[in-house]
Amino acid sequence: MVRDHGFHPVRIKRIVQETPDTRTYVLDAPFPYRAGQFLTVRACGALRSYSMSSSPDTDSELMTTVKRVPGGLVSNWMHEHLEPGDVIETTRPAGVFCLRETSAPLLALCGGSGITPILSLAKTALATTSRRVRVLAANRDADSVIFAAALAELAARHPDRFEIRHHLDDLSGFVTDAQVRDFTGDDLDADFYLCGPGPFMELSENALLAHGVDSGQIIAERFTPTADEPTAVANALPAEGNADGKADGKKDGTVSIVLAGKRHTVPQHPGETLLESARRAGLFPPFSCESGNCATCIAHVTEGEAKMRVNNALDDDEVTEGWVLTCQGEPVTPHVTVVYEN
Ligand SMILES: Cc1cc2nc3c(=O)[nH]c(=O)nc-3n(C[C@H](O)[C@H](O)[C@H](O)COP(=O)(O)OP(=O)(O)OC[C@H]3O[C@@H](n4cnc5c(N)ncnc54)[C@H](O)[C@@H]3O)c2cc1C
Ligand code: FES
């Protein structure tokens, strides 16, 4: 197990107030990372992922940008309690919302805090490639626009390769299908990066597909679960049938979960994820999004095999090494052992 998925103390060097409800935390964190990745913060007994707004190729400091979510536990706590000099606990950067090896243009559609990884990607693409970059940044109103100055500066420095288009809901309503088409223009061969509120991403993705963009060119980072994803909690209800879940005859095996060095074994239940099996065993393993986006539920499969329903967080090497998102992994062999590091 060569990967480090544990938590590390990280000091906050500075805090930048970007907008009334958005702050950037400049971290004293010597972590290597790729543009577009995120780290996961442990605070208030919860785990939340935050993307880097900095670029490893143009910024000497690692920065992550957090927008308050009304009523939200961790984002509000960070805004209200953290000061420069404070130490927070974070994982090392992770995630696969990264640049691909291509010379195709990069077109990004983002809403609200979704600009965070997009700024990182844009800075790296402009600094390390000759690709054209165009960003559509949708926000409620002018006061909500995050990184307005940084985006204007990129446009001034790369007039031939970078374009920023701001969309303000209070002036033009929500982004429409026609606006996505107009933004895309003739660049149907581009890589499209989407990050923002669920309905915005859904509209953008559908508009791009209808416009003829291949689904393989659409790369999405979801900050919140989509409504139609089965949640682990919903599936955690005991399966009907006898105690070993064999009522439909589909499963006949066990899942062993190693948490805090102790092994617990339960019978497999049909359609149950590894995280759900762990909960059924009375355990409280780490998790956050339960949608395959954040990697906080990561564990190592040491025996047998599990297949993930969704994986938006682990790269191919990690999957090959046996890492699994337990909120998405279902056993495909009669016996599976999964080991949590944290
Ligand atoms: C891979 C990844 C990267 C992320 N990067 C960033 C980032 O760079 N900056 C950033 O600000 N956030 C980012 N997020 C979102 C962040 O992890 C939290 O979900 C967000 O801060 C809300 O957490 P909370 O504890 O404040 O709210 P919670 O207490 O978890 O949620 C309160 C309520 O708000 C809803 N909600 C949760 N998140 C959002 C949201 N983003 N927008 C609207 N409603 C929401 C929930 O459904 C819930 O009803 C990222 C998420 C993921 C999975
Ligand atoms: S809890 Fe986020 S990927 Fe599993």
UniProtKB/TrEMBL annotation:
Domain FAD-binding FR-type residues, every copy: 5-100
All copies of domain 2Fe-2S ferredoxin-type, residue ranges: 253-342
Keywords, alphabetical: 2Fe-2S, Iron, Iron-sulfur, Metal-binding
Entry-linked CDD domains: fer2, PA_degradation_oxidoreductase_like
PROSITE patterns, per database record: 2FE2S_FER_1 (PS00197), 2FE2S_FER_2 (PS51085), FAD_FR (PS51384)
InterPro entries membership: 2Fe-2S_ferredoxin-like_sf, 2Fe-2S_ferredoxin-type, 2Fe2S_fd_BS, Beta-grasp_dom_sf, Cbr1-like_FAD-bd_dom, FAD-bd_FR_type, FNR_nucleotide-bd, MRET
Superkingdom, taxonomy of origin: Bacteria
Cofactor(s) for this UniProt protein: FAD
Protein name: 2Fe-2S iron-sulfur cluster-binding protein
Native organism taxonomy: Bacteria, Bacillati, Actinomycetota, Actinomycetes, Kitasatosporales
